[in-house]
Amino acid sequence: MRPLDPLGATGAPAQPDLNLLRTFLAVYRAGSFTAAAQLLGLSQPTVTTQIRSLERQTRRELFERLPRGVAPTAVADELATRVAGPLDALAEATGHGPRESRAEPVHLAGPAELLSIRALPALAPLVTEGVRLRVTTGLTEPLLDELRAGRHDLVIATSRPRGRTLSAVPLADEEFVLVAAPAWADRLARRPAADRPAALHDVPLITYAEDLPIVRRYWRHVFGRRLNCRAAVSVPDLRAVLALVTAGAGFSVLPRYLCAGELASGALVLLDAPEDAPINTGFLVQRPGTSDNPHVAVVRDRLLEAGPTW
């Protein structure tokens, strides 16, 4: 059997025009028909029609349709490898480079920890393809105010924004866990489990905010009582809280994703394992309407695709 010709199938190869190949490459790089359409200045139905036409001509499926976006098949990987260089060189030689090369940076904001550990690694492939990012970290409410004022394009928020001035979609759930270093866990293990909340009052509490929002929520949800404790250390970065707790400074309540490695290695120990652990939903928020910057949709789609796996 003859190997697949990237511009056709076995037998008489088809000869798709360059527009089909340009559209294919845009979809391949953007990860969705919608994002590719914005990058190319085409309608989404036009992009879909062109990809279907190319699939008919090559007699191969090029993309697997997903709930959000598309995934390239092995045939698409091979085709992209063969045509990307020539198409990019032709665009550069004729002065008609892709619109994405001229796109403005995407201004993304959110919690420092979630951006660093989950969001930015998920966006790394887009950066290698020319997407530029400007990242701001901070607390949800100030960032949402700045989004309304036009300072950001997208905000990862730890709560759904109030009102109708912003558009929000669920991004990911985070589970909260009560943790400490093994030495503290061993001391607490000598006390009856029913005394655990009271016993923790004798252990230094490490938190990221003076009003203890995460810890207070855990106490209400799991223990059914109010927290009556002051922070020994307050530092506005959960990664610093994690470092202090791992070093034995005291206990805290952290998102599981943040301390999963320490729990797996034994550097941290769960102090409690409730059947119904507190869950918080994060949201991806933007102003209503379509941005003039096509890369905003590309970043948005990639985050929504990656979020459920976090």
From TrEMBL:
Coiled coil: none annotated. It comes from the Bacteria. InterPro entries: LysR_HTH_N, LysR_subst-bd, WH-like_DNA-bd_sf, WH_DNA-bd_sf. It holds the Pfam family HTH_1. Keywords: DNA-binding, Transcription, Transcription regulation. Belongs to the LysR transcriptional regulatory family. This is DNA-binding transcriptional LysR family regulator. GO terms for molecular function: DNA-binding transcription factor activity; transcription cis-regulatory region binding. CDD domains: PBP2_LTTR_substrate (cd05466). PROSITE patterns: HTH_LYSR. Residues 16-73 form the HTH lysR-type domain. The lineage of its organism: Bacteria, Bacillati, Actinomycetota, Actinomycetes, Kitasatosporales.
